[in-house]
Amino acid sequence: METLRFASSGTGGDDDDGDLYSGFDTVHPALDIKNLEADHGFQEAVRTSYGRRPPTQSRIPTTAARLNSAAPPRLGTSLGTAAPLHSSLGGGAGGGGGGSSDGLRRPMTSMRGTGYTSHGSVFDPLHQANKGPAPALISKTEESAEEKIKALERRVMTLIEESCTAAAKGEVRLALERAKEASSKERSLIRQREQAGLSDGHNLDLTFSVLFNLANQYAANDMFTEALNTYQVITKDRMFNNSGRLRVNMGNIYYKMNQYNKAVKFYRMALDQVPNTHKSMRIKIMHNIGLVFVRMGQYSEACTSFEYIMQEEANFKTGLDLVTAYFALGDKERMKKGFLRLLECQLDIDDDEKYTTTTEDTQANLILEVIRNDPLRKMERQMKQEAERSILTAAKLISPAIENNFSDGYNWCVEVIKNSQYADLANDLEINKAVMFLRQKNFKDAVDTLKMFEKKETKVASTAATNLSFLYFLQNETELAERYALMARDSNGYNDAALVNLGNCCYQRSDYEKAREHYIAALDIDASCVEALYNLGLTNKKLSRYEDALDSLLKMHAIVRNYPPVVYQIAHLYQLLNDNDQASECHTVTFQVTWR
């Protein structure tokens, strides 16, 4: 049995066994490169992989290439050529020449083959440098059918918005043009969808918006036939949900055309389309029906519509319409019942005391100052004014009719109002009673009625004193007129009518400077007070202030056009200012207005 041998780590023994590096200079047959030139397979591989490359440019060996060429031969690197292999350092025999035995020299580094050199040659591994500049960028491909359709939809929506904006500004002609253009674009959009086979994606909302806006703009331009035809297209298309409500618009158009029977027909058709859950909408349609019956003189049918509304959702406007219908029928009892029902309507707004300053807190006062005139407060004022106007108008209407004489009728209305939640309006009705006496030239009863407010510290007392001052001035009782005018001014410092009456009393006494001051104070309160403007012009004329007088009268002429006394005074002032041409023109206008 053969015994294994191990290399000893000692220094003794024979040379073969003691040499640690023995055997390392022996080349394995598989790694012997001496016979590579005769190896057909290796030469074939070199020829197919690298043999087609152009030979690299020979370089002068650097200092590193002058190394001893006695190093053991190695395999070639990836930068080698098909030539006989040599040392990877490219060194030859000796230190000076540094060339290989076949005369070829290798580059210093492995970057030369990829195109990088120390001479700054261009990196062009694909050999495209001689093909000229790069071609121009490829233009954007044509839009697809869907992209074109979406762009056209956006254009249609833009036209609708422009039409609505123009209509809001009152430019109805421009709004109609934009609506027509949107309709034309929308029809083109439908054709493109059909051609592209995208009919299933038809935008119904866009079609409805286009047709609805077009119909509205036709109606705004008084093109009623075209508007009705457009609305009919919408209402007959079952694909549009809730389109039946648009029959209300059609009814409105027939109402404007004085075709009341058709208006009632379409209102009722629209009412059938509105569900009971939409109570407010149904009430508005019923109110329209009642108004049409009033126009037709069918007051009983109108009362039926208004009574239904007052039972479902009472409001002041409908209550006034109901009282008016009862008045047209001449039914005294129903007029009283209608008036009582009107007073039962609720005014859901806060008290005015909330907006008064009651604390010394600066921050709270600033907040009150802000909300005192904010949009919500303005809306509350409008609602209150609407309620007061409806109640007073109804009382003025029925007072002469519900009793044997209008005085007893007013007394009944006043008592009813005093017992309601709107007791403050009773004083206004008393003032109106005095005005009615004045219209009948019953000055005694008018004075007696107004004197009832002398001891009341309210705004109504100021109004009553103003009217008393006017009455006494008409009766040439200047002292009493001035006394009540002062009382009215003291009760309400912002009563411009009281200041006008004071100025009139001073003018009557020829105290023109004092009268001028009162008129100017009245204009400071209300710049459009025509009485103060006219009287100030006359006062300045008396004071020989012709320019100031002309200025006041021209302002009044701008408010009240072609009022003969004003035009005459303006012509006379031009005469006094030696402007005969203007004076002649004004006198001509006076003549034409007087004889018209």
From TrEMBL:
Keyword terms of this UniProt record: TPR repeat
Gene3D superfamilies in the cross-refs: Tetratricopeptide repeat domain
InterPro entries listed in its UniProt record: TPR-like_helical_dom_sf (IPR011990), TPR_rpt (IPR019734)
GO biological process: intraciliary transport; non-motile cilium assembly
TPR repeat intervals: 244-277, 496-529
GO terms assigned for molecular function: kinesin binding
GO CC terms of this entry: centriole; ciliary basal body; ciliary base; non-motile cilium
Name by which UniProt lists this protein: Intraflagellar transport protein 88
